Amino acid sequence: MNDRLAINGGTPVRTKPFPLSYPGLYAYGEEEKNAVLDVLSRKSPFRYYGPDVAGKTKEFEKSFLEKMEKKYALGVTSGTASLICALKAAGIGPGDKVILPAITFLASAGAIIIAGAVPIFADVDDSFNILPSEISRLSDKYTKAVITVPLLGNPCKMTEIMIEARKNNLIVIEDVAQSMGSKYKGKYSGTFGDIGCFSLQLNKIITTGDGGILTTDNSVFYERAVRYHDQGMFREKEGFLSSNNANDVFVGQNYRMSEITGAIAQQQFLKLDNIIDHMRKIKNFIKSEIKDLPQIDFRRIEDADGDCGSALVLLLENKVIAKKFCDAVMAEGVTMYQQYNGQVVYMLPHILNQKTVDKNGFPFNQIPEKIEYYEGMCPNAENLLGRSASITFSFGCTMEDAVDVVNAIKKVAKGLC
Ligand SMILES: *Cc1c(COP(=O)(O)O)cnc(C)c1O
After folding, report:
1. What's the gap in Å between 388 CA and the centre of ligand 1?
2. Which of 92, 115, 282, 410 is the most exposed place for a label (fewest CB within 10 A)?
3. Rg (CA), the chain
4. How many angstroms is it from 81 CA to the middle of ligand 1?
5. Is it the case that residue 370 has pLDDT exceeding 70?
């Protein structure tokens, strides 16, 4: 092997494009296609009525709640919609605070703000997920809920989190957007708390392009979520709702899942275990091949048997080295990058500067005390994310790709550090 790094003009490990990080997309086949064609030939793309509704969305919800062993599931238009519905179902809004980890996608914080509440950022541990003790530290009389985020396939310590949350009377919403199918101690992420939220967007474990689903055992939360996602309507014919209780009427949104989305979702969902098994094989092979390199460490995986295998997150000595490492591995032909550009979510200008679409700083003006976000607020999160370098996998990655990843990382570790 040529030792000279590609970034310094050497020959790259590979020139073939690296598979894109769309895990489930590469599993698309005849099944998704036929399911969509069925909806089209019936001319019934709307879930609730039409000439010949197949009930694809309902079928997906049923498969989902059965696999997750939950009582209820509701398909929606996105992961963000699932979070907003969950927050609204749980009665969270203006004047409330919601705790969430400092490392997550913008949408976790955005959903809280759109729901009218204020996000409070918690630090993480070396799993990159919320540090359970942060929940008690950050809770006050305004705090109503905590959103947990199993990051990039890595399940959260849900037993510990539930104890901390209940001690503080908080509702627990699990934002499992990136980690559908991950498990903690044998139980699926999204099934520990009050409501579990999932995304079907392109980058997620399974995909319909856009889409989402939430799940709960709480009939009140479920009914409120159903109504919130459907203009506040009652559709007793669908069998969701027991009564038209005039005391609990509210205006809702439209976050209904279409039958086209439901059709693809159901077929992708049937492939979930295969997709995860495949990615875990690829990831575990790479990890075992590079585990003794002195230059790198790894994000801690909370439960190795429950990891989705969708991402390998390396930890380098510092931020400068991590950035160089990513650039050098990229030059070798393997896609390595810093998740969220190495930035915690509260450092994004929208959040840092509390820029909302509403007047007078709503919803931040709904809490009597001044809420401030600042660099250094969650030191572990800032440090870990800054030192991280990630590779994400898909159903399209082969063992050949995995070998290239190993060679690229070994080469760069030796040549750079
Ligand atoms: C992707 C993502 C979302 C939003 O999901 P969409 O389907 O894109 O709306 C929410 N939370 C996290 C952690 C995500 O990664």
Report:
1. 20
2. 410
3. 22
4. 9
5. yes
How many C-beta atoms lie closer than 10 Å to residue 298's C-beta?
14
Prior bond of 363 cis (ω within 30°): yes
- Phi, psi at residue 134, to the nearest 5°? -65, -25
Mean pLDDT, all residues of the chain? 96
Give the CA distances from residue 359 to residues 8, 97, 110, 363, 366, in Å, rounded to whole numbers and listed in that order.
52, 19, 16, 9, 12
Task: Report which ligand 1 atom has the smallest distance to the Cα of 178.
Answer: 15
**CA 79 to ligand 1 center in whole angstroms:** 5
Centre of ligand 1 to C-alpha 368, Å, is 30
- In ligand 1, the atom with minimum distance to the C-alpha of 210 is 7
pLDDT digit string, tens, across residues 210-222: 999 999 999 999 9
Contacts of 353 (CB under 8 A, 6+ apart): none
Residue 233 binned pLDDT confidence (cut-offs 50, 70, 90): confident
DSSP state of 172: E
- Residues 238-270 have pLDDT tens digits of 665 555 566 678 999 999 999 999 999 999 999
Taking the C-alpha atoms of residue 417 and residue 408, their distance in angstroms, rounded to an integer, is 14
Residues 6 or more apart whose Cβ sits within 8 Å of residue 122: 99, 100, 101, 102, 130, 131, 134, 135, 137, 138, 146, 378
Judged against a pLDDT cut of 90, whether residue 362 lies above it is answered with yes
Tell me which H or E stretch contains 147. strand 143-148
**297 beta partners:** 315
Q: Which two tokens stand for residue 218?
A: 């709480």
**Tokens standing for 293?**
């390199």
Q: What spacing in Å lies between the alpha carbon of 250 and ligand 1's midpoint?
A: 26
**Residue 152 CB contacts under 8 Å (≥ 6 apart), including other chains:** 128, 178, 179, 308, 310, 311, 313, 339, 390, 392
| CA 225 to chain centroid | 19
SS3 (DSSP) at 81: helix
224-259 as b/e, with b when 16 or more CB fall inside 10 Å? bbbbbbbeebbeeeeebbeeeeeeeeeebbebbbbb
Give the binding-site residues of ligand 1, using a 6 Å CB cut-off. Answer: 78-80, 104-105, 107-108, 149, 175, 177-178, 199, 201, 212
The neighbour count for residue 56, using CB atoms within 10 Å, is 28
Mutate to test the pocket of ligand 1, among 108, 199, 208 (most ligand atoms within 8 A of CB): 199
